[in-house]
């Protein structure tokens, strides 16, 4: 059975829309700053606030600009572990306490790994490209400025 031309065109357009949708989706970015010994380090971050968003995270992404990141909001301080399942990008993970202090950093997390990365009891996790934490001098004890961790810095 062959489809009429109009139906073939519609089917092709629908398939193209499905294939292009992930790359073409609009990202809502928020400003975040990490206060380091070497000065403030600014990022634009996507914030994952729902269970579905946190479960998806950076899975299947192939690129992230160096000044971007993903911030996971767990709503309350709780024991948090992460993994890299279906994540192609090597990442640094900053585990952040309620007061905005970086409690620990997991550097160069292995892409596609299902190894559990323990982070301790935290309110959030910031994922950035692997090597960026070291390059920018981000260390445990540094302060993260974002509305999730209280009022923004003035």
| Helix coverage percent | 10-25%
Instruction: Enumerate how many helices there are, as a single number.
Output: 3
Structural class: alpha+beta
- Shape, per Cα inertia axes: globular
Number of strands: 7
Largest beta sheet: strand ordering: 5-4-6-3-2-1-7
How much strand? 35-45%
* Average residue pLDDT: 86
The run of helices and strands is HEEHEEEEHE
The largest sheet, given as strand count, sense and whether it forms a barrel, is: 7 strands, mixed
Residue stretches low in confidence (pLDDT < 50, at least 5 long) are: 1-26
Based on CA atoms alone, the radius of gyration comes out at: 19 Å
State the separation between the terminal residues, measured CA to CA.
67 Å
């Amino acid at each position: 059975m062959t489809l009429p031309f109009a139906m073939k065109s519609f089917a092709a357009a629908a398939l193209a829309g499905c294939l292009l949708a992930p790359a073409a989706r609009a990202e809502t970015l928020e400003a975040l700053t990490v206060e380091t010994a070497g000065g403030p380090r600014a990022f634009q971050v996507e914030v994952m606030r729902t269970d579905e968003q946190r479960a998806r995270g950076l899975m299947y992404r192939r690129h992230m600009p160096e000044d971007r990141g993903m911030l996971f909001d767990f709503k309350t301080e709780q024991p948090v572990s992460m993994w890299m399942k279906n994540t192609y990008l090597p990442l640094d993970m900053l585990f952040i306490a309620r007061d905005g202090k970086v409690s620990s950093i997991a550097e160069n997390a292995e892409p596609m790994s299902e190894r559990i990365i323990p982070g301790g009891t935290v309110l959030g996790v910031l994922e950035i490209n692997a090597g960026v934490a070291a390059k920018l001098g981000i260390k445990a004890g540094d302060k993260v400025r974002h509305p999730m961790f209280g009022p923004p810095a003035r």
